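In response to a reviewer's request, we include the raw inputs and outputs for one of the modeled complexes. The two entities were modeled together in a single run.
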Amino acid sequence: MFRYIIRRLLILPLIMTAVSMLIFAMLSLLTPYERASLYVQDISKRPGAIDSIIEKYGLNDPIPVQYWHWLVGRKDANTGEIEGGILRGNLGWSKTGKATVWEVIARRMPATAELAIWAGIPMILIGVGLGVISAVNHNKLPDQVLRVISIVGWSIPVFVFGLLCLMFFYARLGWFAPGRLSDWAMQVVQSDSYRVYTGMYTVDSLLNLRLDIFRNAVSHLVLPSVTLAYLNWAYMLRLTRSSMLDTLSQDYMTTARAKGLTERLVILRHALPNGLIPVVTIGAIMLIGLLNGVVITETIFDYPGMGSFMAQSALSLDVISVLGITLFSAFILISGNLIVDILYGIIDPRIRLD
Amino acid sequence: MKNKLLLLISMILIASMVLSACQPAGTQEVAPGGEEEVTEVPKVSPEFKNPDTMMVINGAGEPETLDPAFIYDTAGSTTILNIYEGLVFFNREKIDEFIPALATEWSSNDAGDVWTFKIREGVKFHKGGTLEPHDIAYSFARALLQGRIDGYHTITYEVFFGPDLAMASVKDFAAAFHGKETFDELTDEELVAVCEAVKSKVVADDAAGTVTYNTFGVIPYLFPIMSQQFLGGILDQEWMVENGDWDGDCNNWVPFADPSAEDTILFNEANGTGPYMLDHFTPGEEIVLVANPDYWRTEPMWEGGPSGVASIPRVVIKNITEWGTRLAMFEAGDADYIYAPAQYRPQLDPYIKERCNIDETSCVEENKDGYIKAFRLLPQPAITPAQLNWNINIEGGNPFIGSGELDGSGIPADFFSDIHIRKAFNYCFDFQAMIRDALANEGVQAQGPIPQGMMGYLDSEPMYNYDLAKCEEEFKLADLDKDGIPAGEDTDDIWSVGFYMQIAYNTGNDTRRLASEILKAGLETVNPSFSIAVVGMPWPVFLNNRRTGKLPIYVGGWVEDYHDPHNWAHPFLHSQGAFGRIVNMPNDTAAEFDDLILRGAAESNQEARKAIYEEIQRKSQEYAVNIWLYQVLDGLHYQEWIDGFYYNPAYGNPEYGWIYALSKTAP
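The model returned the following structure tokens for the whole complex.
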């Protein structure tokens, strides 16, 4: 397994290089004038202004040259200093995020991770739990009701569900506000007396012994988490249900029952471990997806995570930001998949990673 | 069977719950008898929260930077209006009267091109420094020598060095100043000379407590510009130097020339003298301002105006792009102001408690159970025309004009150079439908480049209205094949042959799309052989096609940089203006407009100046330069507990342009 992990880790930079080259290749489809629009707030006032912008940011350079500058950095015309260069550990300046790409990731990733955890855990636990109940009660009332709920969950567009939740639970009832924290709590978090450990407010508030901040952070996470979890646990439910039904029909289940085991033991000890194997894969991929940000949910709930930033960057043709986030996402995706593969080997002894 | 029935019932129940939740809050239905049945709207009672904080929920972007010399966006300009101050400021809602700010008095020479300002004493910067005259000279020189590409300073170069040096950036300016082609050709001595020339335009005398401005001739719009932060934002020279900015030495300015936004120390920091101090700016999240406890102003700005420390101690400005989220925050009482574009305002109408115009003296109670204080029908300084290109670029092919020939499948490149075609297009546009359907009646038909309420705006009605008979008549008078026979009598001209062309707008701007659709409908109605395609394109693609002069017609607007007719006539009609240069008028027409525009900019006599701008406005219609579509009437919405608002169109985003005048009181 160790050799397998090393091999996969060695492939990582190759894949990331390929991804970055692909993006640069796609760049050649855009004219320098189209890319210069990132720096143009409005119709330019003077002739030649856009040409000057193109020259200033080297947008007219051949794509391989631009790629090289992105790798090793570019000399600033005024100061003569080298700026940027991923090989120098600099992902460049994000025009959209108004900070370096690293800073934007550092600022937004904790928010996304926190949301992924708060949405992901109930998504998996409830989805799997209900899926098991549905499968065990195949074609009975609980199964029918859960199937309806899962179909509805799967079919409601996220922006409809999210907005309805927001208008009802926040605007009407005043319970769960958007954003990450209320204004008063944000003032506490930004004060000198509050220490930031992880950037995840639920974790940091506990470490700072501020239960009021913790409660506030949780109340802001409720709606986006429920929105994400509800729409995704429906999928988990259906997946678990079908996988469990398949497992429950295997011969060894009959054997287990014939041995006199209780139904509870049959399900927990024999059916569940086998039925959950495909669920682990899909669940992990869904979690990784959440870690890369969820655009619509973050937008509706004014949640400053990676998803909304990715969308903004792409829409404004902010190539540096798009490249930085894509590489980061690729890293998360590949690393996540590696972990899933390893877990897969552990929970399914039939699989040998070497 | 039982299971299927259960499944069906469950699905119907859930679907009905979802659909009922999606229903609008309140509806008006017409009963069979014809009487309107008014459905009660649910009562909304926002909770009064955060008495010490004003929460501004914007939705149209956030600042690119907070450097007053660099900013060229309304979000940024508006934010720093509360942080920095100039020598003078607008007198409440008046855009042509000025009150002292950092200057206490001023005078000019007889020629009107040298202005001397007495600088207020005892003013402190937010970080503790004391305001001195040299800070003003430094701020001015730094702004002009920073001169980022396509920022505001093309205007200041014009004001202090004349229109020939109104260049796109400091590098272009410096090269042009010495008559060189490029900045790289300049020697060290020439670079120093550029800096010294700039510094000579604003000279400080610390001992006398004065600053003298030397303009390029008479500049009638000097004070409107000085009231804007790009020229008026005064910095503390000592603090700037300590923090690594330019030291004021002419040998050292080049590394600070035309920087990127993030390269200046004021990118997300601020040190002004205004009523609010920057607490922090976290891009993508919020800008927080806090009241300046040492604010110098002790006398009311005007009768009944604010004085002393700001009434609202803390201001949080957030940019939330999703309308539903903004509305939810407003209904919950967390937001004190929300950005509400015209298409969403009908959702707010049932909840308007007081409907006002430019200030609270005009408020009328509308619904005692409502919660919104709405300021409506505010003449926003923004004109949207359908821009016509009189000489379309066909180099390398041009899909926007079809075949490029007068053959029914396209238009020739000089299609709009025929005045009858331009007039016909004007008569075929249903202005009232535009205002009614796309602007929800919150707009007026534009009559030229100069907006309502500004010098040069004519008392008369706009020259064109929706009149298909006149549209047809003008098309028939056109002579596109230039054979001397009007199209109405010529079987191979436009009226008989027809045409195809594309109208462009930038995707996402539904108002512009609707304007394009309305024009298409008018033209295709007047003659079925006319065919128009409305084409939406992403902003970068739109900009590129516009720049290359390939768009025959496109819908695009202008928001002013400063409040003066010069800032309208020049961009739209000058041959080098932002829009004017894409119109491609023939030389004689362009020269006629250029001459008028330059005369208007230099005229100090207000009556004479007014006459010039009225002539420009009139000619812009007579020549049908464009289709002058509409001027938006803005609508701003506050919680009922916000008091003190007045509308000054020169503030950029007036809703949070001058928070110092606002207060928040529990209802």
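As requested, we also summarize the result in words. Residues 2-22 of chain B form the longest helix (21 residues). The first strand of chain B starts at residue 28 and ends at 30.
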